[in-house]
């Protein structure tokens, strides 16, 4: 008996431990893979034998080392060079960049075929406007070698900065009216960007002439010390947070997705709270207990179990097509047949998720209401307060921690939901932000980007899945961070209120 | 059976006639008739379940909050039947304040607790001198000196005795005519109890006080008139001294001498 109960406790503890380990492992994996992507890793020059027996050179950063069984190696048809022994073989995955210049951008090299590895100090990484990073060595700027070494690098940096300024000017012009003179100026600036170029030597010895206008940033990782690398890391990470995506989302940042997620969740909170609280008040305070109320309660609880995609379908049918169309018919008649609210957008997505999370808020609020002691309500009524006054002045404030608990659960669920959003407002790439400086600042009808959908898009819809894989992890980490932040805010608020109403009961 | 120890009808504040209350057809009070004098302390005593709390809660119509509660009969407050159609229970409760058995301060500050009823009553006219009203109520409840420097502190940080006086201050802040006290000291220590009893003495010059108590000594100490109830009926009602020293009924004598109850 005694042993039995001990074993039971250990079993429980083991289950908790397993859960914790899984969670920690998951977060650690996401964090390491996601955050590691932005680190300016050293570039290595690998000389190796390819399948045909010829020596090839690639310049790139080591992504990971894979273990390949001999059988797999043999069956792949490249088993000409088996090294003695029967252990598995090691294969290096090198990110060589240089899409378009020297494809493919990932090299898979067997460790035993590597002839030499070196770290050329002048190796440079270029973040290009298109086609991802490029690796190589800068040989000349505008055809002039500038005496090589640091002088050349200085000249290169100067040109880079000039190009950056021109690009900023073009960006500033983009918002203004496109009059002929402005258009001419823009064209001139673009020509100016393309006029200057530098010579890049690739690892295979080929030379490429690259216009400065094609390059956003450049750095020489092998010459950077730890402090410089840290600085570069922070800058890269900040750009990831603050920039819009480029290159079919495969490059650039995720700012619109962060903003979209946060805006949608906040709007959802604003919509679900009054709705859920009102429903809970009716069920708990006013409705006469009976079969009808029991039925409603069962229905509300079952709503929480409906698959979220069903909500998406409902949102599309009811909110977008029915209500959206009605809104367009009455308020936006002028712009018909082009839909304003009759198309998926921020408002409908938030409403759909508000519906999805409604049961959580209702149940939690009801629990909070039932925890307010009867003596407190009687105390208020005995002072001449009506039931409504008691509710609004006393019961609801005291129950607010429970309302917030419900909201916390709702936010946690809504922020991670993707499936219904794909039907009612989320897009791969939104032309505008849902919040900007233009009246009315919050654009309820706009489509928006979402971190959850962004992960799906990067991982499965991208033309270059291997290159976007680290971004999947980074975006996943961000999504977790956003949810944790939203939750922490609500939890802090709740704890403040709970402290205020402590000792109650 | 009507019992009234009050000769002068002008002195009557509350007049109860034929009051019968039943919970789900289970009678709790049967045919109670009595008169409560103005600006005096009237105590209801009796064994548990005798209906004294039910009687007390009839005066401010709190029984209506209980489902299945049914009331018959008449209670007149200064000549007006409180059960009459058109009487707003909320309005009635402003005239008939109540203090409960356990201190039930709201989870708000001391100040907000006292101001609660005032704020509900009127938004404009009283708001100006709200501070004054709160101070005066706290002074009358003999609590001002203890809380004057921490009016913004949560009411729940006060001791049990202070909380009970705060609840009394909250009740008298809305200036009721009648104050109902439902075993106000049963959850308190002897010193706090003493303070409450002193307070009752001070308050009776301005309020008609009705107190329900289990404590015989307390009833004898604080009340001017005492009613003994048993099994939902009024057994004996008269000046406290007479009831305690020379009860007319055998039941009363048995109860107050501790032979039953």
Question: Descriptors for this entry?
Answer:
heterodimer, A: 505 residues, SH3 type barrels, 3 domains, five-stranded antiparallel sheet, B: alpha/beta, Rossmann fold, six-stranded mixed sheet, 10 helices, 11 strands, globular
Notes on the protein architecture:
The complex is a heterodimer of chains A (505) and B (261). Chain A has a 5-stranded antiparallel beta sheet with strand order 4-3-2-1-5. A 5-stranded antiparallel beta sheet of chain A has the order 9-8-7-6-10. In chain A, 57% of the residues lie in helices and 14% in strands. With 505 residues, chain A is α+β, with helices and mostly antiparallel strands. In chain A, helix 9 (346-370) crosses helix 11 and helix 11 (387-416) packs antiparallel against helix 14. Chain A starts with a helix and ends in a 5-residue tail after the last helix. Chain A folds into 3 domains: 44-118, SH3 type barrels, CATH 2.30.30; 123-224, no CATH class; 255-500, MetI-like (MetI-like fold, Orthogonal Bundle), CATH 1.10.3720.10. The longest helix of chain A has 36 residues, at 465-500. Chain B has 261 residues and is of the alpha/beta class. Chain B has a single domain (39-61, 86-228, 235-256), classed as 3-Layer(aba) Sandwich (Rossmann fold). Chain B contains 10 helices and 11 strands. Chain B has helices at residues 52-58, 89-95, 110-121, 130-140, 144-147, 160-173, 190-203, 216-222, 240-245, 250-256; strands at residues 2-3, 12-23, 26-37, 41-45, 69-77, 80-81, 96-99, 178-182, 208-212, 225-230, 233-239. In chain B, strands 7-8-9-4-10-11 form a 6-stranded mixed beta sheet, with helices on both faces. Chain B has a 5-stranded mixed beta sheet with strand order 1-3-2-5-6, with helices on one face. In chain B, a hairpin with a 2-residue loop joins strand 10 (225-230) and strand 11. The mean pLDDT of chain B is 87. Chains A and B meet through helix 10 and helix 11 of A and helix 2, helix 3 and helix 6 of B.
